[in-house]
Amino acid sequence: MNKVLITGSEAAALGAKLAKIEVLSYYPITPAFPAMERLSKYIDDGELNCKFIRAESDHSALAAVLGGSLAGARSYTVTNSQGLLLMTEVVYHVAGLRQPIVMGVANRALSAPHSRFPEHGDVVSQSASGWIQLFCENNQDILDNTIQAFRIAEELRVPVMVNYEGYLQSHTLEEVFVPEQSKVDAFLPLKRQPALDINNPRGVNTVTSPDFYPYYKFNQNEAMLESLNLIPKVAAEYNQEFGANSCGLIECYQMEDAEHAIVAMGSIVGTARILVDNLRKEGRKIGLIKVKVWRPFPVKAILEALQNVSFVTVLDKNIVFGVGGALATDLKAAAYGRGEMVINGAILGLGGGKCGVEEINAAVMETESAGSDKNKSVWIGL
Amino acid sequence: MTINVNSLPQVELFGQGNVGCKGCGAAIAGRQAMKVLGERTIITIPASCMATLGGSNTRSAWRVPFYHTLFECAPAVSSGIRAALEIQGIKDVNVVSWGGDAGSADIGFQSLTGAAERQENIIHVLYDNEMYMNTGGQTGSQTPIYAITSNGSLGKKVRKKNMLAIMEAHGIDYVASANIAYPEDLMAKFQKAAAKKGFSYIHILAPCHRGWGIKPEETIEVARKATECGLWELFEVDEGKRTRTYEPKLIPVADYFKAQGRFKNLTDEQIAEFQKFVDDYYGKGE
User: Fold this and answer.
1) Phi and psi for A102 in degrees, rounded to 5?
2) Model pLDDT for residues B28-85, shown as the tens digit of each residue
3) Which residues of B touch A54 (CB under 8 A)?
């Protein structure tokens, strides 16, 4: 395995290249564009045999990738924030058509007011779309999750988003171990399943009556739930093949005897590890749960990890207005009926707001002092 | 290139079992086009009557791969399909996006202009019934001036957007108007478009009797009058060379308008306005 110093954007592009994507389309947007440019360079330099469709909008970009997938090609795109919102109609459509498309999302705050900085608000808007959503703690996760995403998507015929944060990850250099191409080829065998097959004509997305529609939706949901079984297996196989350290649904850090747990996803996880180490030195029984898979929500795995915990601080880099942070809301729903455990959410890092050790510490302290008022989210850094 | 109707294949690649209204201009256009496009065709159709009448649940009226796309993006999807075929080395396939006037000229215009500018190897068809018939017949950019629609009881105030001129301005391989009342002309144009390596655009006048206020059995007759009166010229621009493909008899435009309920409030002055337009246009000669 080769070790390189690359940005998150490069890790995403490298993951897609190692997966030997065949159809690529995108519409430039900040901060996803460096991943796009890198992929185009691979194609121009002859390092990647892939057809690129220079779309005139984000909506058309995902539509073109969808066309590629329907006709049997391994297809990929990258976007974020406003681009993702413009794509939203196609995002839902892709999931309904059960196309195994993988999309990198360089998470960025949504307008208005205008912001170009990292936040999870963009993908939180897609929570009900039927895409599996993986979150990345670091650039290694971006590469590992991108490769695994194709395997998951193609086995279940469910599309996958690989989320990494704008700038904090997309533009930041980290050491990344790169798997060998031949091993990735073996890990990702290409089995074409074209819905639009010239030798086997079929109608796709015909008008569907109430007699049929619920069955499609039931099966779609079953496939999403099945991913909770598949994703850990894929991660385990990946780790074995590549000597990697990719977690399944979640990763527990210092949770063995923890009474207080921090639950978080994305880049903030790495920083929260430092805080947990600091608080452990002070004798606090605190741990951390990294949520890699947010959609579908891994209820069983998280509740098992929280079995002996009495207090949870959830860190959300997003806000669902009038409700709270999306992760905290999910966790509260999952823990319904679980007795005395208090789950309080903290909102931080919106629009690129600071998410250092100090802020996460404040989130821990302030959620504790909020007590058992479960409807309360504390806002950090205002 | 000429078409001999007697030598066309017997097989109906589109149409059997379609749930269009009787006298549906769109379905007639689809049947004619498929006679020359043949079975190695993949067709994508954005939201429209044509998308819904072509299949429901597990049934399809198409004997070729057919995909009912989202409203805005049939040419983008077709671009992706072509890319996937190329990467797999699958050759000799016509990739066709087939939109209504809304899915091509209005909500679908962005992806159409994008695919045309990229010179994608696809054929885009605008089947034009000059209003949004799938939602009950509202006004759109392809609705002619003065026409009454379901949400415009006073008639449209502004002129129809000239999509043929817009598409010609893209400098694509092939641009043509067509009319379901002239099947040989229509089919010859599809034959030419299918042979191109770049982008082709075919704009078919395909009346909707419900929207136009005519009887189902008058669809072809009224469509023919549109061309014969000079308002729907049949022409092509083949790699930049413009040719009129049919010389109309130039009957009075009033004969065309008076057949249609949507123009029932047209005044003599308004008719004269159209007549002058036609006279000036054809008077110039070519």
Assistant:
1) -115, 135
2) 999 999 999 999 999 999 999 999 998 899 999 999 999 999 999 999 999 999 999 9
3) 118
The residue among A58, A60, A62, A98 with the most chain B CBs within 10 A of its CB, best to mutate, is A60
- Chain A positions in Cβ-Cβ contact with residue B82 (cut-off 8 Å): 67
Per the structure, the complete domain to which residue A169 belongs is given by 2-242
Residue B236 is part of which domain span? 10-283
Q: What is the pLDDT of residues A61-103, one digit of tens each?
A: 999 999 999 999 999 999 999 999 999 999 999 999 999 999 9
DSSP conformation class of B134 = G
Please, what is the Cα angle at A29 between A24 and A34, to 5 degrees? 65
Same domain as A351, residue A257: yes
Question: Under an 8 A CB cutoff, do B84 and A68 touch?
Answer: yes
Residues of B in contact with A208 (CB under 8 A): 56-57
Nearest CA in chain B to A72: B84
Reported confidence tier of residue B256, pLDDT bands at 50, 70, 90: very high
Question: Which among B24, B51, B37 has a CA at the least distance from the CA of B191?
Answer: B37
CB pair distance less than 8 Å for A60 and B81: no
ipTM exceeds 0.95, yes or no:
yes
CB contacts < 8 A, A to B, total 165
The whole-angstrom distance between B110's CA and the closest CA on chain A is 7
Residues of chain A with C-beta less than 8 angstroms from the C-beta of B93: 198
Q: What is the DSSP string of B62-123?
A: BSS-EEEE-TT-HHHHHHHHHHHHHHTT--S-EEEEEE-HHHHHSTTHHHHHHHHHTT-S-E
Give the CATH number for residue B52.
3.40.50.970
- Res B145 pLDDT > 50: yes
pLDDT at B286: 41
Q: What is the mean pLDDT of residues B191-195?
A: 98
